[in-house]
From TrEMBL:
Keywords: Carboxypeptidase, Disulfide bond, Glycoprotein, Hydrolase, Metal-binding, Metalloprotease, Protease, Secreted, Signal, Zinc. The active site is at residue 653. Belongs to the peptidase M14 family. It comes from Petromyzon marinus (Sea lamprey). SMART domains: FA58C, Zn_pept. One of its GO terms (molecular function) is metallocarboxypeptidase activity. Residues 776-790 have a biased composition (Low complexity). Residues 360-683 form the Peptidase M14 domain. The lineage of its organism: Eukaryota, Metazoa, Chordata, Craniata, Vertebrata. Its main location: secreted. GO terms for biological process: proteolysis. Gene3D superfamilies: Carboxypeptidase-like, regulatory domain, Galactose-binding domain-like, Zn peptidases. This is Inactive carboxypeptidase-like protein X2. Residues 169-179 have a biased composition (Polar residues).
């Protein structure tokens, strides 16, 4: 038998062990809860009334207190350890995770989509615990188009240790490679301001919310709309952070410097860090060392760094290590969000489309092929033609959609959408192609709205006025073309500044009192220099001018990108030295209506809660602005169209992002589809009719004037005309040299459909005599018609 003293000692040891176990359990309980909470948060059902914005504000730390400049201006340094965990804590956390049946950083996704490296809430250091064994498979070199479409993934082998004798369990998967993951949406504004944070800021106008790729500073710098995030200190402990709001497979980072005419600042190297809770961070490593990424060499060129191994986490942080000038950065993050059906925040913000369209970017050959496919599907209502060639010899293809393609039908108005004037503004080009597909598909389906449009309107779609510039931007890629690469033609001409300046001719004549006498208020002729071979006029400009003169367009839209606003003429300022000033046309009211109609029908353009794109809030004016009041431009297509032809044209700035990633295209189509259709339907607003002579023959080039609107239009070759007007009653006059003018009151209603106002003009006596004399080969008498009548009376009395 065991002695009593030995039994007592054994009991004391057992009690001590139990006490230690209990104490250890109490110590580990909070750690277990921390590990459990992420899973619980994801698996719990979404509360439809829960405010995720409020949750974020409550849970996040506030970093926006400006910090005073430090005296340490060294350009190099090593960031202080963030969220470092001692070896004892690591062992403790690992033990806690394994004892509760959890795996540190355990994947919550099926094996077939399990990511490369998962950053767990416990943030176990890689160098001490070999939790992840990752084997990259680098894809072969591919063309830019194929890389954008997606490349081969990386093979991942994940081994998790469970104590000393735990068996290694491996799972193999192929997540998306860096090149196949799209931008998260810093540039496109899918990432909200509250998802972006920074260590310090220089001032509010240089806050983290301004650190978006390609963001542009306002015309007045040093205000609340500046061109980057700039840190409030100059040391290597500064950072900018993005919260993806769900677990994301991060694959790369794109950086730019500060957009500024006065300051040159950018980062030259940085480190990347990841976290699941925004408190404990792991730095991306290259073997045993922290990886240092090379960044920018100027302030405007985007530089992409792809991660060799994709990392799965919720937060990503960019830590500048060296810089030029100040620590300033614009940023885009590449990543693939992991599917999570319980994430209500993302489900309620998702926009889907039911239209089965070719949602991708099309280069020149692909555009031509798509247009051919549409033509083959709808051969009876479509026609492909070209209006000329670019500087590099690429044809400027257009598509006509009408029930009688190839012919102008009397009484049927002509409409146009033009895109790609700036080659790097790609969204307008793609929306024009999508509209072709949509109209063809819906016409074949028997959609009554589309059938009525096609049968009553002659629609022209010109998707790319500057194909040379687009090809440059396309080859660079949607995120790497920057703000201006591909904007100009091959010979460096901005097409929207290249049309003849007829504004100056008109305004000079008005100042001299020559309008309606020596100079008309419409259809101003081309200046002589325009026809010179040596004139600085792009071949694309000449092609568009010739196209405008051949077809009697009534209404048009010029699709641009880089903002969310609709502008209307005049684009030029009366005072050429002014950068901006309101410059109204005589048709100010109908132009404002047309602009407002598109802006208000667009899904987000007039949303007062939306993020300002760059440097001006247009929602205050319902998403519209006079072109010259925004920024004055001489030689724009819209001004030229109004002064040289009958066509009223407005400019649509369709998106904050000039060249959105192809994953954004379905949403952009939904944003603009209804607006594109509604604006097209406005070609049937106002008055229309035919001007004929006494024999019923149409009179071409007759002038249609509206009282109190000092801008006229003319009739087409068949005598038909269209005049855009807002609802109201108007006194309208038709005149033609050699005919007696005719006038009548025309009432324009609120219902869609132009009011018909026909005119019959009778020849003057003098014109009749001219016609009779012409029949007998004799010239008509000279002098006024009154003098001629008196001569006829005297001769008659003598006989």
């Amino acid at each position: 038998m065991m002695p009593k003293r030995a039994i007592t000692a054994s009991l004391l040891r057992l009690n001590a062990k139990a006490a230690c176990s209990a104490t250890l359990a109490l110590v580990l309980l909070p750690l277990q809860l921390l590990l459990l909470l992420p899973d619980l948060a994801v698996s719990s059902p979404a509360d439809e009334h829960f405010d995720y914005y409020l949750q974020e504000i409550r849970n996040r730390e506030h970093y926006y207190a400006p910090v005073q400049e430090t005296t340490d201006n060294s350009l190099r340094g090593r960031p202080a350890s963030r969220g470092a965990i001692s070896s004892g804590q690591e062992d403790l956390i690992t033990t806690a995770a394994t004892s509760t049946g959890l795996r540190v950083g355990a994947s919550r996704w099926p094996a077939e989509v399990r990511p490369a490296a998962v950053i767990g809430g416990a943030n176990v250091a890689r160098e001490r615990h070999d939790l992840y064994s990752i084997k990259p498979v680098r894809p072969a070199a591919e063309s830019p188009a194929k890389r954008r479409a997606g490349a081969q993934g990386v093979e991942v082998v994940k081994a998790i240790k469970k104590g000393k004798d735990a068996a290694k369990r491996q799972t193999t998967s192929k997540p998306a490679s860096p090149t196949s993951c799209p931008p998260l949406g810093m540039e496109s504004m899918r990432i909200d301001d509250f998802q972006i944070h920074a260590s310090t800021i220089s001032r509010y106008g240089l806050g983290a919310h301004r650190g978006r790729l390609n963001i542009q500073a306002g015309m007045l710098e040093d205000d609340q709309y500046d061109g980057a995030w700039c840190a409030g200190r100059h040391d290597a402990q500064q950072w900018m952070e993005v919260d993806a709001r769900r677990i994301t497979n991060f694959t790369g980072v794109i950086t730019q410097g500060r957009n500024s005419q006065q300051t040159h600042a950018w980062i030259t190297s940085y480190k990347v860090m990841f976290s699941n809770d925004s408190h404990s961070w792991i730095t991306y490593q290259n073997g045993a060392d922290e990886r240092l990424f090379e960044a920018n060499h100027d302030q405007d060129t985007p530089v992409v760094n792809e991660l060799e191994i994709a990392v799965v986490a919720r937060y990503i942080r960019i830590n500048p290590i060296t810089w030029h000038g100040d620590i300033c950065m614009r940023l885009e993050v590449l990543g693939c969000p992991m599917k999570d059906s319980n994430n209500y925040y993302h489900r309620r913000n998702e926009v889907t489309t039911t239209d089965n369209l070719d949602f991708r970017h099309h280069n020149y050959k692909e555009m031509r092929l798509l247009m051919k496919i549409v033509n083959e599907k709808c051969p009876n209502v479509t026609r492909i033609y070209n209006i000329g060639k670019s500087h590099e010899g690429l044809k400027l293809y257009a598509m006509e959609i009408s029930d009688n393609p190839g012919e102008h039908e009397i009484g049927e108005p002509e409409f146009r959408y033009v895109a790609g004037v700036h080659g790097n503004e790609a969204l307008g080009r793609e929306l024009t192609l999508f509209l072709m597909e949509f109209l063809c598909h819906e016409y074949n389906r028997g959609n009554p709205r589309i059938r009525r449009l096609v049968e009553e309107t002659r629609i022209h779609l010109l998707p790319s006025v500057n194909p040379d510039g687009y090809e440059k931007a396309y080859e660079a890629g949607s995120e790497l073309s920057g703000w201006t690469f591909g904007r100009w033609t091959r010979n460096g001409i901005d097409l929207n500044h290249n049309f003849p300046d007829l504004n100056s001719v008109l305004w000079d004549a008005e100042n001299r009192g020559h309008v309606s006498h020596g100079v008309p208020n419409h259809h101003l002729p081309l200046p002589d220099w325009f026809h010179s071979r040596n004139a600085t006029v792009a071949v694309e400009t000449r092609a568009v001018v010739s196209w405008m003169e051949k077809i009697p367009f009534v209404l048009g839209g010029n699709l641009h990108g880089g903002e969310l606003v609709v502008t209307y003429p005049f684009d030029a300022a009366r005072e050429p030295w002014r950068a901006r000033e309101p410059s109204a046309t005589p048709d100010e009211q109908i132009f404002r209506w047309l602009a407002f109609l598109y802006a208000s029908t667009h899904r987000t353009m007039t949303d007062a809660n939306r993020r300002v794109c760059h440097g001006q809030d247009f929602t205050k004016d319902e998403g519209v602005i006079n072109g010259a009041e925004w920024h004055a431009v001489t030689g724009s297509m819209g001004d030229f169209s109004y002064l040289h032809t009958n066509c009223f044209e407005v400019t649509m700035e369709l998106s904050c992002d000039k060249f959105p990633h192809e994953t954004e295209l379905p949403q952009e189509w939904e944003n603009n589809r209804e607006a594109l259709l509604v604006f097209l339907e406005q070609v049937h607003r106002g008055i229309k009719g035919i001007v004929t002579d006494a024999d019923g023959e149409g009179i071409p080039n007759a002038i249609i004037s509206v009282d109190e609107i000092n801008h006229d239009v003319t009739t087409a070759s068949g005598g038909d005309y269209w005049r855009l007007l807002n609802p109201g009653e108007y006194r309208v006059t038709a005149r033609k040299e050699g005919f007696v003018p005719a006038a009548q009151n025309c009432q324009v209603g609120y219902d869609m459909g132009a009011t018909r106002c026909n005119f019959t003009l009778h020849k003057t006596n003098r014109q009749r005599v001219r016609d009779l004399a012409g029949l007998f080969g004799k010239s008509p008498p000279r002098g006024s018609s009154r003098r001629f009548s008196s001569q006829v009376k005297r001769r008659t009395s003598r006989t």
